[in-house]
Amino acid sequence: MEKKLPNVFLKRNKLVKKTVGERIVNTITFILFTLYAAAFLYLIFYLAFCSLFLDDYFYDVMINNSYGETVKFSFSIENYIKALSISASDTKGNNIFLPQMFFNSLWFCFIGVFGGVMMSTFTGYVIAKYEFKGRNLIYSIVIFCMTIPIIGTTSAMLKLVNSDFLPIYNTPFYVILTSLGGFGFSFMVMHAFFKNVSWNYVEAVLIDGGGHYTAFFRVMLPQAHSSIVTLIILSLIGSWNDYSTPMMFLPDYPTVASGIYNFQVTNQRADDMPTLFAGLVLSFVPVLILFAIFSDRIMKNFSIGGLKG
Protein backbone atom coordinates (compact mmCIF):
# COMPACT_ATOMS: atom_id res chain seq x y z
CA MET A 1 0.00 0.00 0.00
CA GLU A 2 1.39 3.37 -1.04
CA LYS A 3 2.16 5.68 1.85
CA LYS A 4 0.77 9.19 1.88
CA LEU A 5 3.26 12.00 2.12
CA PRO A 6 2.96 14.23 5.19
CA ASN A 7 1.23 17.56 4.71
CA VAL A 8 4.50 19.37 5.35
CA PHE A 9 5.99 17.88 2.16
CA LEU A 10 2.88 18.68 0.16
CA LYS A 11 3.05 22.33 1.29
CA ARG A 12 6.70 22.57 0.35
CA ASN A 13 6.14 21.20 -3.16
CA LYS A 14 3.20 23.37 -4.16
CA LEU A 15 3.04 27.08 -4.78
CA VAL A 16 1.42 29.05 -1.99
CA LYS A 17 -0.58 32.03 -3.16
CA LYS A 18 0.41 35.23 -1.42
CA THR A 19 -2.17 37.26 0.39
CA VAL A 20 -3.01 40.85 -0.52
CA GLY A 21 -1.13 42.13 2.53
CA GLU A 22 2.01 40.22 1.58
CA ARG A 23 1.86 41.58 -1.95
CA ILE A 24 1.54 45.15 -0.68
CA VAL A 25 4.47 44.73 1.72
CA ASN A 26 6.63 43.13 -0.98
CA THR A 27 5.77 45.89 -3.45
CA ILE A 28 6.60 48.66 -0.98
CA THR A 29 9.85 46.92 -0.03
CA PHE A 30 10.80 46.54 -3.69
CA ILE A 31 10.13 50.22 -4.39
CA LEU A 32 12.13 51.39 -1.36
CA PHE A 33 15.13 49.23 -2.20
CA THR A 34 14.95 50.31 -5.85
CA LEU A 35 15.04 53.97 -4.82
CA TYR A 36 17.86 53.23 -2.40
CA ALA A 37 19.92 51.51 -5.10
CA ALA A 38 19.12 54.26 -7.64
CA ALA A 39 20.39 56.92 -5.23
CA PHE A 40 23.71 55.11 -4.83
CA LEU A 41 24.05 54.55 -8.58
CA TYR A 42 23.33 58.22 -9.21
CA LEU A 43 26.08 59.27 -6.81
CA ILE A 44 28.59 56.85 -8.38
CA PHE A 45 27.84 57.96 -11.94
CA TYR A 46 27.82 61.62 -10.93
CA LEU A 47 31.21 61.18 -9.25
CA ALA A 48 32.67 59.44 -12.30
CA PHE A 49 31.12 62.04 -14.63
CA CYS A 50 32.53 65.01 -12.72
CA SER A 51 35.96 63.38 -12.45
CA LEU A 52 36.32 63.71 -16.26
CA PHE A 53 35.77 67.48 -16.33
CA LEU A 54 38.70 69.73 -17.00
CA ASP A 55 39.32 72.02 -14.08
CA ASP A 56 38.49 75.13 -16.14
CA TYR A 57 35.04 73.84 -17.06
CA PHE A 58 33.90 72.19 -13.84
CA TYR A 59 32.54 75.18 -11.95
CA ASP A 60 31.32 76.84 -15.15
CA VAL A 61 29.23 73.79 -15.93
CA MET A 62 27.82 73.63 -12.41
CA ILE A 63 26.96 77.33 -12.34
CA ASN A 64 25.67 77.61 -15.90
CA ASN A 65 23.50 74.56 -15.49
CA SER A 66 21.81 76.24 -12.55
CA TYR A 67 20.82 79.10 -14.88
CA GLY A 68 19.90 76.85 -17.78
CA GLU A 69 22.66 78.09 -20.10
CA THR A 70 24.26 75.90 -22.71
CA VAL A 71 27.83 74.89 -21.93
CA LYS A 72 30.31 73.07 -24.09
CA PHE A 73 31.39 69.94 -22.25
CA SER A 74 35.06 69.05 -22.24
CA PHE A 75 36.32 65.79 -20.81
CA SER A 76 39.78 64.37 -20.17
CA ILE A 77 41.53 61.68 -18.14
CA GLU A 78 44.04 64.30 -17.04
CA ASN A 79 42.44 64.40 -13.60
CA TYR A 80 43.28 60.73 -13.00
CA ILE A 81 46.91 61.43 -13.79
CA LYS A 82 46.84 64.38 -11.40
CA ALA A 83 45.11 62.20 -8.78
CA LEU A 84 48.21 60.01 -8.61
CA SER A 85 50.02 63.05 -7.24
CA ILE A 86 47.62 63.40 -4.30
CA SER A 87 49.85 63.43 -1.27
CA ALA A 88 49.77 63.47 2.50
CA SER A 89 52.58 64.60 4.77
CA ASP A 90 53.97 62.37 7.49
CA THR A 91 55.30 63.55 10.84
CA LYS A 92 58.71 64.30 9.27
CA GLY A 93 57.27 66.48 6.53
CA ASN A 94 57.77 63.96 3.73
CA ASN A 95 55.10 63.71 1.04
CA ILE A 96 53.52 60.29 0.50
CA PHE A 97 51.70 59.98 -2.81
CA LEU A 98 48.66 57.96 -3.82
CA PRO A 99 50.51 54.83 -5.12
CA GLN A 100 52.27 54.51 -1.75
CA MET A 101 48.91 54.99 -0.04
CA PHE A 102 47.53 52.03 -1.99
CA PHE A 103 50.42 49.92 -0.73
CA ASN A 104 49.77 51.07 2.84
CA SER A 105 46.09 50.20 2.46
CA LEU A 106 46.97 46.71 1.24
CA TRP A 107 49.17 45.73 4.19
CA PHE A 108 46.90 47.58 6.63
CA CYS A 109 43.88 45.57 5.44
CA PHE A 110 45.75 42.28 5.08
CA ILE A 111 47.21 42.30 8.60
CA GLY A 112 44.16 43.73 10.31
CA VAL A 113 41.52 41.63 8.58
CA PHE A 114 43.17 38.22 8.46
CA GLY A 115 44.65 38.58 11.94
CA GLY A 116 41.33 39.72 13.38
CA VAL A 117 39.19 37.06 11.72
CA MET A 118 41.69 34.31 12.54
CA MET A 119 41.87 35.16 16.24
CA SER A 120 38.10 35.68 16.44
CA THR A 121 37.65 32.19 14.99
CA PHE A 122 39.94 30.70 17.63
CA THR A 123 38.40 32.54 20.58
CA GLY A 124 34.85 31.99 19.33
CA TYR A 125 35.43 28.24 19.06
CA VAL A 126 37.08 27.89 22.48
CA ILE A 127 34.49 29.92 24.37
CA ALA A 128 31.59 28.26 22.54
CA LYS A 129 32.67 24.61 22.84
CA TYR A 130 34.83 24.25 25.98
CA GLU A 131 33.74 24.46 29.60
CA PHE A 132 36.12 26.35 31.90
CA LYS A 133 35.91 28.80 34.78
CA GLY A 134 35.31 32.37 33.72
CA ARG A 135 33.91 31.48 30.30
CA ASN A 136 30.61 33.25 30.87
CA LEU A 137 32.41 36.20 32.45
CA ILE A 138 34.62 36.63 29.37
CA TYR A 139 31.59 36.49 27.11
CA SER A 140 29.78 39.08 29.24
CA ILE A 141 32.80 41.40 29.18
CA VAL A 142 32.96 41.13 25.38
CA ILE A 143 29.29 42.06 25.07
CA PHE A 144 29.73 44.98 27.46
CA CYS A 145 32.80 46.31 25.63
CA MET A 146 30.91 46.28 22.35
CA THR A 147 28.32 48.65 23.84
CA ILE A 148 30.98 51.28 24.67
CA PRO A 149 31.19 53.96 21.95
CA ILE A 150 34.53 54.13 20.14
CA ILE A 151 34.91 57.78 21.11
CA GLY A 152 34.89 56.68 24.75
CA THR A 153 38.01 54.51 24.37
CA THR A 154 40.01 56.39 21.73
CA SER A 155 41.85 58.69 24.11
CA ALA A 156 42.76 55.84 26.45
CA MET A 157 43.98 53.70 23.53
CA LEU A 158 46.02 56.59 22.15
CA LYS A 159 47.70 57.12 25.51
CA LEU A 160 48.37 53.39 25.93
CA VAL A 161 50.02 52.79 22.54
CA ASN A 162 52.10 55.94 22.94
CA SER A 163 53.40 54.99 26.40
CA ASP A 164 56.72 53.46 27.42
CA PHE A 165 54.88 50.28 28.38
CA LEU A 166 53.58 49.66 24.85
CA PRO A 167 55.44 51.91 22.37
CA ILE A 168 53.67 50.83 19.18
CA TYR A 169 52.22 54.20 18.16
CA ASN A 170 52.88 55.04 14.51
CA THR A 171 54.34 51.60 13.77
CA PRO A 172 52.97 48.56 11.91
CA PHE A 173 53.06 46.70 15.23
CA TYR A 174 49.96 48.68 16.21
CA VAL A 175 47.98 46.95 13.46
CA ILE A 176 49.42 43.55 14.37
CA LEU A 177 48.70 43.73 18.10
CA THR A 178 45.30 45.38 17.90
CA SER A 179 44.09 42.92 15.26
CA LEU A 180 44.96 39.93 17.42
CA GLY A 181 42.48 40.77 20.15
CA GLY A 182 40.11 38.03 19.04
CA PHE A 183 36.89 39.78 19.98
CA GLY A 184 34.36 42.16 18.47
CA PHE A 185 31.77 41.53 15.77
CA SER A 186 33.73 38.68 14.16
CA PHE A 187 33.92 36.93 17.52
CA MET A 188 30.16 37.18 17.97
CA VAL A 189 29.52 35.65 14.55
CA MET A 190 31.98 32.78 14.99
CA HIS A 191 30.82 32.11 18.56
CA ALA A 192 27.22 31.85 17.36
CA PHE A 193 28.29 29.56 14.51
CA PHE A 194 30.27 27.09 16.62
CA LYS A 195 27.59 27.17 19.31
CA ASN A 196 25.19 25.61 16.80
CA VAL A 197 27.61 22.93 15.54
CA SER A 198 27.19 19.58 17.28
CA TRP A 199 29.95 18.42 19.64
CA ASN A 200 29.49 14.93 18.20
CA TYR A 201 31.95 15.88 15.47
CA VAL A 202 34.72 16.33 18.04
CA GLU A 203 33.74 13.18 19.91
CA ALA A 204 33.97 11.17 16.69
CA VAL A 205 37.49 12.48 16.08
CA LEU A 206 38.55 11.70 19.65
CA ILE A 207 37.17 8.16 19.40
CA ASP A 208 39.18 7.63 16.18
CA GLY A 209 42.35 8.62 18.02
CA GLY A 210 42.60 12.23 16.92
CA GLY A 211 43.17 15.20 19.21
CA HIS A 212 41.47 18.54 19.73
CA TYR A 213 43.74 20.24 17.20
CA THR A 214 42.77 17.67 14.58
CA ALA A 215 39.09 18.11 15.42
CA PHE A 216 39.32 21.87 15.02
CA PHE A 217 41.51 22.19 11.93
CA ARG A 218 40.27 19.13 10.04
CA VAL A 219 36.58 19.01 10.99
CA MET A 220 35.22 22.15 12.64
CA LEU A 221 37.14 24.83 10.74
CA PRO A 222 36.16 23.60 7.23
CA GLN A 223 32.51 23.83 8.24
CA ALA A 224 33.01 27.50 9.11
CA HIS A 225 34.50 28.26 5.69
CA SER A 226 31.47 30.20 4.45
CA SER A 227 31.23 32.34 7.57
CA ILE A 228 34.96 33.07 7.63
CA VAL A 229 35.08 34.11 3.97
CA THR A 230 32.06 36.38 4.44
CA LEU A 231 33.65 38.02 7.49
CA ILE A 232 36.91 38.53 5.60
CA ILE A 233 35.12 40.25 2.72
CA LEU A 234 33.07 42.53 4.96
CA SER A 235 36.10 43.35 7.11
CA LEU A 236 38.18 44.13 4.02
CA ILE A 237 35.60 46.62 2.81
CA GLY A 238 35.42 48.24 6.25
CA SER A 239 39.20 48.42 6.67
CA TRP A 240 39.74 49.82 3.19
CA ASN A 241 37.29 52.67 3.94
CA ASP A 242 38.65 53.30 7.44
CA TYR A 243 40.32 56.72 7.47
CA SER A 244 40.21 57.62 11.16
CA THR A 245 42.47 54.83 12.47
CA PRO A 246 45.45 55.61 10.19
CA MET A 247 45.06 59.33 10.84
CA MET A 248 45.17 58.92 14.62
CA PHE A 249 47.46 55.95 15.15
CA LEU A 250 49.53 55.69 11.94
CA PRO A 251 50.28 59.23 10.73
CA ASP A 252 53.44 58.10 8.91
CA TYR A 253 51.49 55.41 7.00
CA PRO A 254 48.52 57.15 5.36
CA THR A 255 46.15 54.85 3.51
CA VAL A 256 44.03 55.69 0.48
CA ALA A 257 41.05 56.59 2.65
CA SER A 258 42.97 58.79 5.09
CA GLY A 259 45.08 60.39 2.35
CA ILE A 260 42.10 61.41 0.22
CA TYR A 261 40.27 62.64 3.30
CA ASN A 262 43.28 64.77 4.20
CA PHE A 263 43.44 66.07 0.61
CA GLN A 264 39.77 67.01 0.79
CA VAL A 265 40.18 68.90 4.07
CA THR A 266 43.34 70.77 3.09
CA ASN A 267 42.16 71.68 -0.42
CA GLN A 268 38.64 72.86 0.20
CA ARG A 269 39.46 76.27 -1.28
CA ALA A 270 41.86 75.06 -3.97
CA ASP A 271 39.10 74.68 -6.60
CA ASP A 272 40.47 71.29 -7.64
CA MET A 273 37.38 69.19 -7.15
CA PRO A 274 37.75 67.11 -10.35
CA THR A 275 41.08 65.78 -9.08
CA LEU A 276 39.45 64.91 -5.77
CA PHE A 277 36.64 63.12 -7.60
CA ALA A 278 39.17 61.19 -9.68
CA GLY A 279 40.97 60.13 -6.51
CA LEU A 280 37.68 59.00 -4.99
CA VAL A 281 36.90 56.93 -8.08
CA LEU A 282 40.31 55.25 -7.87
CA SER A 283 39.77 54.57 -4.17
CA PHE A 284 36.41 52.80 -4.45
CA VAL A 285 37.16 50.77 -7.60
CA PRO A 286 38.91 47.93 -5.64
CA VAL A 287 36.00 47.75 -3.18
CA LEU A 288 33.47 47.81 -6.01
CA ILE A 289 35.25 44.95 -7.79
CA LEU A 290 35.48 42.96 -4.56
CA PHE A 291 31.79 43.42 -3.84
CA ALA A 292 30.79 42.56 -7.41
CA ILE A 293 32.73 39.29 -7.28
CA PHE A 294 31.56 38.15 -3.84
CA SER A 295 28.12 39.80 -3.61
CA ASP A 296 26.31 36.45 -3.75
CA ARG A 297 28.38 35.07 -0.90
CA ILE A 298 27.88 38.21 1.17
CA MET A 299 24.11 38.05 0.76
CA LYS A 300 23.82 34.39 1.67
CA ASN A 301 23.13 33.38 5.25
CA PHE A 302 25.92 31.81 7.23
CA SER A 303 25.75 28.06 6.79
CA ILE A 304 25.28 25.89 9.84
CA GLY A 305 26.81 22.43 10.13
CA GLY A 306 24.66 19.41 10.86
CA LEU A 307 24.75 15.66 11.30
CA LYS A 308 23.11 13.07 9.13
CA GLY A 309 20.97 10.67 11.07
Describe the overall structure.
This protein is mainly alpha-helical and 309 residues long. The chain has a domain at 87-299: MetI-like (MetI-like fold, Orthogonal Bundle), CATH 1.10.3720. It is 68% helix and 2% strand. It has 15 helices and two strands. The protein has helices at 7-13, 20-50, 55-66, 78-83, 98-129, 135-147, 151-161, 172-179, 185-195, 200-207, 212-223, 225-240, 244-249, 256-266, 273-299; strands at residues 87-89, 95-97. Strands 1-2 form a two-stranded antiparallel ribbon. Helix 5 (98-129) packs parallel to helix 8 (172-179). The longest helix is centred in the middle third of the chain and has 32 residues, at 98-129. It is globular. The two termini are 26 Å apart. The model is unreliable at 7-11 and 302-309 (pLDDT under 50).
Index terms:
single chain; 309 residues; mainly alpha; MetI-like fold; two-stranded antiparallel ribbon; 15 helices; 68% helix; globular
CATH architecture of the domain at 87-299: Orthogonal Bundle
Termini distance?
A: 26 Å
Kindly state the percentage of residues in helix: 55-70%
Secondary-structure element series: HHHHEEHHHHHHHHHHH
As residue ranges, the low-confidence spans are 7-11, 302-309
At the fold tier of CATH, the topology name of the domain at 87-299 is: MetI-like fold
Under CATH at level 1, the class of the domain at 87-299 stands as Mainly Alpha
Rg, alpha carbons: 26 Å
Sequence of strands across the biggest β-sheet: 1-2
Q: Provide mean pLDDT, rounded.
A: 82
Instruction: Tell me the structural class.
Output: mainly alpha
Report the β-strand fraction as a percent range: under 5%
Under CATH, the homologous superfamily of the domain at 87-299 reads MetI-like
Instruction: Name the shape in a single word.
Output: globular
Strand runs, count:
2
> What does the largest sheet look like?
2 strands, antiparallel
Q: How many helices?
A: 15
